[in-house]
Amino acid sequence: MAEAQTTIQSIADKDPQDFVKRQPWAESLGMVMDEATPERVRAHLEWSPQICTSGGIMHGGAFMTFGDSVGAICAMLNLPEGAGTTTTSSSTVFIRGLREGETAYATAIPLQAGRTVIVVRTEITNQDGKLLSQVTQSQAVLQPRS
């Protein structure tokens, strides 16, 4: 099982964008990884008409997918050796919208990386640093079966 953890860390070391390639839904949104460490995961997502409401504002579901995906990568990087993870809860607070010409930036940090649960907070800001959304999620730590 040490191979699974080594693979996760080697992805982060080699090319963090490979995390996105393993999440087809996040990749379809255009998510781009900027940094992936156990202490912090950063990514960005440019405004696109394909992920907007009829009013031209980025759809809440795109924010939720973006935040959840970045947070899940942070959780993966904090797993004990050989363990897996799954989301058990996710809460998104929407503060302001993202408009044409803007870029969303997500930063995820672990609030708690325990033996059974990992809690991650992801803040999504625009290019000016204004908070757009905050996602807090809990990830169950799935121990390998004997």
Automatic annotation (TrEMBL):
Keywords: Hydrolase. Pfam families: 4HBT. GO terms for molecular function: 1,4-dihydroxy-2-naphthoyl-CoA thioesterase activity. Coiled coil: none annotated. InterPro entries: HotDog_dom_sf, PAAI_dom, Thioestr_dom. Residues 55-131 form the Thioesterase domain. One of its GO terms (cellular component) is cytosol. The keyword Cytoplasm does not apply. The keyword Zinc-finger does not apply. This is Uncharacterized protein (TIGR00369 family). It comes from Antricoccus suffuscus.
